[in-house]
Amino acid sequence: METNTRSFRLQDPLDAINFSTFLLRIRNERREKLEKEFEKVRETFLKKAVASNFNWTRTHQLKEMMECGDADIERYATKRMARDKDEAKENEENDTEEVEQD
Predict the structure, then answer these.
(1) With contact defined as beta carbons under 8 Å apart, do 65 and 3 qualify?
(2) Rounded Cα distance, 6 and 39, in Å
(3) 92 and 22 in contact (C-beta within 8 Å)?
(4) By the number of CB atoms within 10 A of the CB, which of 13, 19, 24, 32 ranks highest?
C-alpha cells in the first residue's frame, strides 16, 4: 500500500492548480502504463462498481494503513485522520458563516 500519498485541498487555489498539474503529469507521463494496469483489473473494478461494493475514502485508506501494524504508519494515519476531521469541521463552520452572511 502506498503510504506517502499527497493530498490536495481543492478549495485552496494553489492546491487546485497543483492538483491540475499533477493530473496533467499523470496523463502525459504515465498514461500508457496506467491504461495497461487498469486493463488487468477492469473486470473486477466494474463488478465492484456495479455491486455497490465500491466504497472508498481516504479514511478507509488510513484505517487500512493502521491495520497493517506499522507504528510509523499508525502514527501518521492517526494524525492525518484527526487533521482531516478538523478540516471538515472548519469547512462546515465556514460554510455556515457564509450562509448566515447571505
Answers:
(1) yes
(2) 25
(3) no
(4) 19
Inter-residue contact 1 to 64 (CB < 8 Å): yes
For 24, the grid coordinates are 496533467
Which three three-digit cell numbers place residue 15? 492546491
**CB proximity list for 58: less than 8 A, separation 6 or greater:** 7, 80, 84
How many Cβ atoms sit within 10 Å of the Cβ of residue 62? Answer: 21
Residue 2, pLDDT > 60, answer no
Q: What are phi and psi of 46, to 5 degrees?
A: -65, -40
Check residue 5 and give left, alpha or beta (phi > 0: left; psi -120 to 50: alpha): beta
Tell me what the pLDDT averaged over the chain comes to.
78
Model pTM? 0.39
- C-alpha distance from residue 27 to each of 23, 33, 41, 53 (Å): 6, 10, 19, 27
